[in-house]
Design goal:
Layout: E1 19-25, E2 33-36, E3 49-56, E4 68-74, E5 80-86, E6 98-107, E7 114-124, E8 132-133, E9 160-161
Parallel strand pairs: 1-7
Antiparallel strand pairs: 2-5, 3-6, 4-5, 6-7, 8-9
C-alpha cells in the first residue's frame, strides 16, 4: 500500500514587506537594475510562485509611462532574482520626480493566488541644467557725480533660475 501526499494551493504568496521606497538618480544609465525582494510561498514547488508582473500606478499622468521593466530569473535553488531595470528612456527628475509601481507575484495553483509589492521610486536630482538669466541684457545708468552710497548695495539686480532641485 502506498500513499501520495498532494499539496493543495492553500497558501497565497507574500512579500516580507508590502511597500518599499527606492531612490534612482536621474543620472542612472539605462540598464541599471535594483534588486527587489522576491515573494515567498510555502506551498510545494508545483503551487509556488511562477510569475511576476509590473504594473505602473504612477499618480501623475504628466509622467507618462514609467521607464522601468521587471527582470526575473530563477535561481538553481528555485528562488527568484527579481530586479527593476531602467529602460533606455531613463528618468528625468524635472519631468517626473516620483513613480509608483506594483509588482504582482502569482502562484501556479488553481485557483491562482497572488501578492503585491508597492514600490515608490523617488527620482533624485543631478546638476544637469545651467542657470538661465531673467534677461539677456541689463542696462542701468549712473551719473558720475552721484554719491556711490546712494546705490548701495547694488546698481542692478540680476535674477536667474535653474530647473535643478535644491542648491545646485
Amino acid at each position: 500500500m502506498s500513499f501520495e501526499l498532494v499539496d493543495l494551493n492553500d497558501n497565497a504568496p507574500w512579500f516580507a514587506d508590502d511597500h518599499t521606497r527606492i531612490h534612482v538618480s536621474e543620472g542612472s544609465l539605462p540598464g541599471a537594475s535594483i534588486s527587489l525582494q522576491p515573494a515567498q510561498d510555502i506551498d510545494s514547488p508545483d503551487n509556488g510562485v511562477v510569475e511576476y508582473r509590473l504594473v505602473d500606478v504612477t499618480p501623475s499622468s504628466s509622467c507618462g509611462d514609467a521607464p522601468f521593466d521587471l527582470r526575473v530569473e530563477r535561481n538553481t535553488d528555485g528562488s527568484h532574482d527579481v530586479r527593476l531595470v531602467l529602460q533606455p528612456a531613463g528618468v528625468d527628475r524635472e519631468v517626473c520626480d516620483h513613480y509608483r509601481l506594483t509588482v504582482i507575484a502569482s502562484d501556479a495553483g488553481s485557483p491562482t493566488r497572488s501578492a503585491s509589492l508597492v514600490i515608490d521610486v523617488v527620482v533624485t536630482d543631478i546638476n544637469d541644467h545651467r542657470p538661465v538669466l531673467e534677461r539677456t541684457v541689463y542696462v542701468t545708468e549712473i551719473t558720475e557725480n552721484v554719491d556711490p552710497a546712494r546705490y548701495a548695495p547694488a546698481l542692478v539686480t540680476v535674477t536667474a533660475t535653474d530647473a535643478d532641485h535644491g542648491e545646485r
